[in-house]
Model the fold of this input.
Amino acid sequence: MRPLRFALAQGLLLNDALAALRAIALDVSRVTPGGRRLVVDGGGNVEFVLARPSDIATYVERGAADLGIVGKDVLMESAARVLELVDLHFGACRFVVAAPRGALERSLDEYRHLGSLEVATKYPRVAEAHFRARGLEVEIVKVAGSAEVAPQVGLADWIVDLVATGGTLRANDLAIVEEIAACSARLIANPASYHYRRAEIAPLVEKLADWASRSRSSANR
Amino acid sequence: MESGARRPLLSAPRGFRDILPTEARELRVIEQALTETFAASGYMRLEPPTIEYSAAQPTQERLIQFLDTDRSLVALRPDLTTAVARLVAQRYRESAGALRLSYFAPVFREEPAMTAGEREVVQAGVELIGASGPIADAEVLALLVESLECCGLRLDGATIQVGHVGIVQRLFAPLAEEPRSAVLSALRAGDLVGALRRAHEAGMPSEDVTRARAALGVIGRGIEQLDGDDVRELRQVVHLARERWPGSVKLWGLPNIGLVPALPYYTAIVFEALHPDVGVIASGGRYDLLIGAYGAPRPATGFAIDVLRLHRALFAEGWRPADARPLVTLHSGGDERATMRCAASLRAAGISVAIGDVAETAGIALIAAEVVDERRVKLGDGRTIDAATLARELAT
Done:
């Protein structure tokens, strides 16, 4: 059988993910952020695959990787069928609905008169599910980047975006209307791999769960 | 397009594909092995319709639907268990004994674009309806293993995993109805993090959440630390199933509490067959409430094998079907009447014959022969032999 394959998201989460893996004594020394080698040996029948965050869920869903570390935001948007095993707590951010500061009343008035709101977002699936659950009639406008500029230029009334500190929203004069979900990094697994290769996977899951609860309690102190 | 002529659409719609003769022949071999195995345990084959009412499906997700001409919403059947449940509630409402039914047929499920998802999947399975208790569960579980082994699949100790939805439900029994169903639907979706968080938010004490998390991770011998009637039932079913089909793997059937299928209708024992290269090959379990939803409550258990995945797993292990009998390609010497008669006498001797060239062999060996007269052919090695002799040679 091939080595246990662990998919890691390049980008913001990578350093925290590597720190977590180092803390549970996996050898991540050959993983070089920004490097060219994307499949690297991790020793002890484990190998790491580096990929874009939005591809991690696909790799794991299709069994190309057995385990992965990826943000809950990515999982929500991809709707991939994977197992979410551990909340690793780092990479915290929130999906929010935001509107131009002071224009909330006006947009609700528009909604009463015009019957629908336009919402710009990079996360159409998350936005759609949220407004459907709320029973709010909206038109989703998918953008590839910088949704926060949409209300200013008249592209949409509101936005759905991912925020960490809220700095970008403030800079663009947007205020949070409501929070959709809190997100953080998750340890995920391919369901068949998780069951079939449990003897190899369970110890890693246990150690990462321990590490996550210890790192959270030390952060809270 | 340049000429203005419409370019013909050559590919099948996304998620559907052609099955060409080589693959089709291999699938027929698998179908035959499965059908014979099911029949040998008394399972009768039936064929539900391809289309069912959308509203009669237990979940509306992933249906491929369209409006019928009478404006009712119908769907390509997403699942055969549901079709059989509906059929049993209608046609066997009065029958009290055990029904043993089997099927081999395609099912259809919506898949998002660009994910290489297949929308047409072939399922082979059985349903044992009207029988409850561990003996019935063991019968179906053992029949799954027997079926896979009869197709030539090599099992190992982790291939067959057995869980129990009742044990999972019991872990969250103290919760109120609404949060408990939210927890269970999160588990069915594979979201362990979300399920445990919801349980905690609904007032489940931290120690109990920790205990539930540990229990959901129990696999194999760890089950001996757990208690309860459902745990005993799981162990008994595995034990009885091994008695019924000892199989090639010692102690097959790994208890796994965390095995929670995505389909919502399972009520007790559940099981899956897993393969390291292709994932879940088969799944099944007890679904005592599904037929009741159609107005005729009956206990029931069954399984479905994903035939195309089973084929892929067999292929990955180097399996190839036994050689089919070779095909004689008969070339005319100019006398068409003699050629026709010669072909007839070869076929009468039990030989497969095609007249002329054959472009698609489906992996079957070809034997070229020239017509000599109505009963004799000349082979590539120069010999002239009659139909009966050729038939004897091909049989050895």
Observations:
- The interface with chain B takes residues 1, 58, 61-63, 79, 81-87, 186, 190-193, 195-198, 202, 205 of chain A (CB under 8 Å).
